[in-house]
Amino acid sequence: MAENPGFVSEDPSKGVDSKNGVLSGSLKQSEVVVEKTESSDEETPTRDQWSAKVEFLLSMIGYCVGLGNVWRFPYLCYRNGGGAFLIPYVIMLLFAGIPMFFIELVLGQYAGLGTLPVWNCLPILKGIGYAMCIISGLTCIYYNMIIAWALYYLFASFTSVLPWHHCGHWWNSPGCGAANRTANGTNFTRVSPSEEYWHVRVQQYTGSISETGKMNWELALCLLLAWIFVFLCLVKGVKSTGKVVYFTATFPYILLIILLVRGATLPGARDGILFYITPDFNSLRKSQVWYDAASQVFYSIGVAFGGVLTMSSYNKFNNNCQKDAILIPLINCSTSVFAGFAVFAFIGFMGHELKVDVKDVVASGPGLVFIAYPEALTLLPASPFWSICLFFMIFTLGLDSMFVTLETIITALVDEFPTVLGRYKAWLLLAFCVGMYLLGLTQCTQAGIYWVTLIDWYAAGFCLIVTAFFMATGISWIYGIKRFSADIKAMIGHEPSMYFKVCWMFVSPALMLFIFFFSLVTYTPVKYNNIPYPGWAVTLGLLMAFSSIAMIPLFAGLAMWKQKGNFFQRLRGACQPTASWGPSKSAPQPEKDMTYTDSPYPLYDPRSLRYEIRHSNGVPAFSSGLKYPLYDPRSLEEEKSVKSKMANGTENASFTAV
């Protein structure tokens, strides 16, 4: 062990206790430091954990199963070869989605920390944590607006006749409900009452994002109510969220089953479902199909948003996260396929009633949920009841995703600054909700739909792929696949299979590079309803996208600047875990008689390394000649082995300096 100036031996002959392999004596300066450390630990609030495993699973299912499963996946199936689209979708899920999902689960559960402090494992990539927070923050702004729209339609459904059921209202044009045919009579466009209700009554939208118009106070109140719901469900942390998800995560499945059963009994439903699942294997030759499959996998399971990492940080240390990494994405994939049957059953019915082809009524995004689907409901008996079911399902689907997205930001800040923000988490949450609501008011103007589309187009696009790429390569090649596998073994008792290791190191990064370059090649500026955006709006959108990506090189440079030495020494130092990195406090505690040198902390406690560095001239010791550092989980097993040999008299105690 390196000389420790804070240690004064009462008896030189008792400097080393050969029986226990620890230093004995009295501490002078170090005693003061220990007291400060302990007091600071006491000041830090205790971190919550899930009350039951089912709460974590329901929260993750609610987070992953969102609006994209209902309004984007079915449309992508139709556009990319029907049932044949499932082939590239499953391939991308197996070789990119599940492995990246597993990485986030492991990082969060092992350290028990949010998206910012968890990157103490690799300081040079701490910018990934900030990128995740920015992406989640921008997503919160527009995603809660969609929930507000669902509330608006939900309230409007409490009537005997749905307001978009027929024309004749003040918001309807003279051409409402008419079919405008071309000269040869083969093609036509139809202005439906539901479309005019959406554009003229709800959005009251203008001709461009530059024309702000007036504030729609009905939408502003719905947005306020949406943020109040989010705040109340998150104010008690995961303890309150874990109880809410019992309802919000399961109720959408009940409604989907009801809607599917009802839709399957309608005339034309068979045509819609066949249109949805009929495979066109020739489409698999198109690169666009593979890009759509990969992007849908990433967006639907929430990779690189930080939500997966955050929710897993509240798990118990020995939770089997490998099973979760497989189960949750598969449930999400199955839900997408199942939702497609419900959606296309109603679209087929709508085409039958309107006497048009199914392809003429297929839509995606808001056009499906707020135009096509509401119109299909008007063709049903007791249409207000079915409308209430639909929009309450949309509300609960969005609410689950909002819980996790906002909790990602709050948890990251509280874990990064525990002594400053730990006791004021509720106030921090309130401040964020108020701030996000004020920013969201731009979406309640007559140009609101343009703002929602702009943020949706750029905030969580290719920046997700870039963030996920650096996360995979950083963990696999810099932090080290062996070290990462040892962390997993410490939690679940065995290392991950070769399938995961190969995906993390080679397959997943290669697929993400393909997605990234393909998105650059096929990039088109944002549009809404074929209305192009002005140059300043496109520039603003690109700034949103690059604001998150820029955090990665920015904090990499900052991490190197904090190190000492030449460029390569700084680079090497920034690629090493910090002294505070280690397993979460929920990790099993070792035997009390096993300690590192004179450290007051137990074996395998992350504080023991920090203590050694501060009391050994910055040089941590390896107790009993260990070849693994203090924060490495393999050191625990080696220490036990050494102790056993020493007890049997087959090995002598020794101390080796790094």
Give a description of the structure:
The chain has 658 residues and is mostly helical. It has helices at 29-43, 53-64, 67-71, 73-79, 86-111, 127-156, 193-203, 217-234, 238-248, 251-264, 269-277, 287-301, 307-312, 321-354, 366-378, 383-416, 418-421, 425-440, 448-458, 462-492, 498-521, 535-549, 551-561, 567-574, 606-614, 634-647; strands spanning 7-8, 16-17, 22-23, 26-27, 179-181, 188-190, 527-528, 531-532, 621-623, 655-657. A two-stranded antiparallel ribbon has the order 1-4. Helix 10 packs antiparallel against helix 16, helix 12 packs across helix 21 (498-521) and helix 20 (462-492) packs parallel to helix 22.
Oligomer: single chain
Name the shape in a single word.
globular
Percentage of β-strand residues: under 5%
User: Helix count, per DSSP?
Assistant: 26
Distance between the termini: 8 Å
Mean pLDDT: 84
Order of strands across the biggest sheet?
A: 1-4
Structural class: mainly alpha
Percentage of residues assigned to helices: 55-70%
Poorly predicted residue ranges: 1-42, 179-186, 593-597, 653-658
**Major sheet description:** 2 strands, antiparallel
**Radius of gyration (Å):** 28 Å
Number of strands: 10
Q: Layout of helices and strands, plus pairs?
A:
Blueprint (H helix, E strand, L loop, with lengths): L6 E2 L7 E2 L4 E2 L2 E2 L1 H15 L9 H12 L2 H5 L1 H7 L6 H26 L15 H30 L22 E3 L6 E3 L2 H11 L13 H18 L3 H11 L2 H14 L4 H9 L9 H15 L5 H6 L8 H34 L11 H13 L4 H34 L1 H4 L3 H16 L7 H11 L3 H31 L5 H24 L5 E2 L2 E2 L2 H15 L1 H11 L5 H8 L31 H9 L6 E3 L10 H14 L7 E3 L1
Antiparallel strand pairs: 1-4, 2-3, 5-6, 7-8, 9-10
